[in-house]
Design goal:
The protein is of the alpha/beta class. It has helices at about 5-25, 75-85, 95-100, 110-115, 120-130, 200-205, 210, 240-255, 270-280, 310-320, 330-340, 345-355, 360-365, 390-395, 415, 420-430, 435-440; strands at about 35-40, 45-50, 55, 60, 70-75, 105-110, 140, 145, 160-170, 175-185, 185-190, 215-220, 260-265, 285-290, 375-380, 400-405. Helix 1 (about 5-25) packs across helix 5.
Length: about 450
């Protein structure tokens, strides 16, 4: 494409993006409170976009030195071309993914202003992608180009999930824990991600391919979902401690009478799966650690607890880019919705464990007995937080561990596209069934 025609196409796309955004400006009451400005450096083209009460003024091409703005985002043409593809390759699928993994992409000036309006900006860039690919449908609610198969409609009527509150005791303190269960057979325990809860698993827990062969259990950690925090948390800064986390899991297993369950966890729970296999292999017939590695740097973000930033809006955007662009809109929206609901500091306190204190040493990994407790690692290709390479390197240090990259998925495979995830999970569970009879029982 000739340079002149490319520059003309860029301008046309930006103008159409603005029209799409302004057409929806009145649909969100929060948008009417947004007033800021930014510059988009699209290769050699620079465009000033001024937002007043959610409405974008006519774009200013090549703003002069007298103009001012709050923040800017910039990258060469090839980076933006990769971003604007109908189904971008990782890590070009999201602004935050490029910020973390593409050195040529930059966010400058007041990043705090950008973070305050991250949801709006991500939605705007969804319109840009739609404008670049004229025939694609825009999913306004998710702020991305709609992709993937339509979500099948479940049958009308009562679901098979059974729910109850259980009281457990950890370190002398009583906790009231919300638990859901379905199915029958060997035990499978599901552990939710940081800042979320067991709602992530409801599609898996209604899947007969799973529940016809396994008794599936999931619970909300204290202070998450429907599990209220204990009185001792009042006035304290929440930080998830690994020893407490392990004790919660073991106490729930004991209370529910789980018989050497397979444990499946994702993100921070995937990290814990590795720790459970290292410290308590006799208690579990296997672990499936999703989005886990020996060390996960760079996810602890003070914007999650910044008093000037609404965590209910920012937290979903911080995790949105961890998902695959092919995630069906309904599943994406459910994940983002749950991440908008955590109490102040809960998500941050969980990530302080996952991307802060958690670390497996080489000696700990080399000492893991995978003949007693098999270890499986699954990581989505679109996860820029815990990348497939990071998980692969960890698996290589654990003798007998298995690793597989999930090419169609991201950081939340359990909820992004459960049908696709089941294709990876079911062969693992089939391989672990013999361990139910052959492995020694816990004391």
């Amino acid at each position: 494409m000739e340079m002149e025609s490319l520059e003309r196409m860029k301008i046309e796309v930006i103008e159409k993006m603005v029209l799409l955004s302004n057409d929806c400006a009145a649909s969100d009451a929060r948008d009417q409170l947004r007033t800021f400005s930014f510059v988009w450096y699209f290769g050699e083209l620079s465009v000033l976009l001024r937002v007043n009460r959610g409405v974008i003024a006519p774009p200013v091409i090549a703003p002069g030195i007298e103009a001012s703005w709050d923040f800017s985002m910039s990258a060469p043409d090839d980076v933006w071309m990769a971003f604007l593809q109908p189904v971008p390759k990782p890590p070009y699928h999201h602004i935050f993914a490029m910020w973390a993994r593409v050195s040529a992409f930059r966010l400058d000036a007041s990043r705090e202003v950008m973070v305050r309006h991250a949801g709006w900006l991500n939605r705007l860039m969804g319109y840009a992608r739609a404008a670049w690919n004229y025939s694609l449908e825009v999913d306004v609610s998710a702020g991305v180009t709609a992709q993937g198969l339509a979500t099948p409609r479940p049958a009308i009527g009562k679901e098979d999930i059974q729910a109850a509150y259980w009281r457990i005791q950890v370190k002398g303190e009583q906790h009231r824990i919300y638990v859901e269960q379905s199915g029958s057979g060997p035990d499978l325990l599901l552990l939710h991600t940081a800042g979320s809860d067991a709602r992530q698993f409801y599609r898996l827990m209604n899947d007969e391919r799973l529940t016809s062969r396994w008794r599936v259990s999931a619970f909300d950690l204290p202070g998450h979902g429907k599990s209220l925090p204990p009185p001792s948390w009042q006035g304290k800064q929440y930080r998830l401690q690994e020893d407490d986390y392990i004790d919660y899991v073991l106490a729930v297993c004991d209370a529910l009478g789980l018989d050497r369950p397979v444990v499946l966890g994702c993100s921070m729970a995937g990290a814990l799966c590795l720790r459970l296999a290292q410290r308590h292999p006799q208690r579990f017939r296997g672990v499936v650690a999703c989005e886990a590695a020996e060390r996960i740097p760079s996810r602890l973000n003070h914007w999650l607890i910044h008093p000037a930033i609404d965590a209910g809006e920012f937290a979903p955007q911080w995790i949105d880019g961890l998902m695959a662009p092919t995630t069906p809109a309904a599943q994406r929206q459910e994940i983002l919705w749950c991440y908008s609901q955590a109490a102040a500091g809960i998500f941050y306190g969980d990530v302080a464990y996952y991307s802060g204190s958690f670390c497996l040493s080489d000696s700990e990994m080399q000492g893991m007995d995978t003949t007693l407790c098999p270890v499986y690692l699954l990581t989505g290709a679109y996860d820029y937080s815990c990348t497939p390479d990071m998980s692969r390197r960890t698996a290589d240090k654990i003798q007998g561990a298995h690793f597989q990259e999930m090419h169609e998925l991201g950081h939340f495979p359990i909820a992004e596209n459960p049908d696709v995830f089941m294709q990876y999970l079911m062969p693992i569970l089939s391989a672990l069934v013999p361990y139910a009879a052959s492995a020694p029982r816990a004391d």
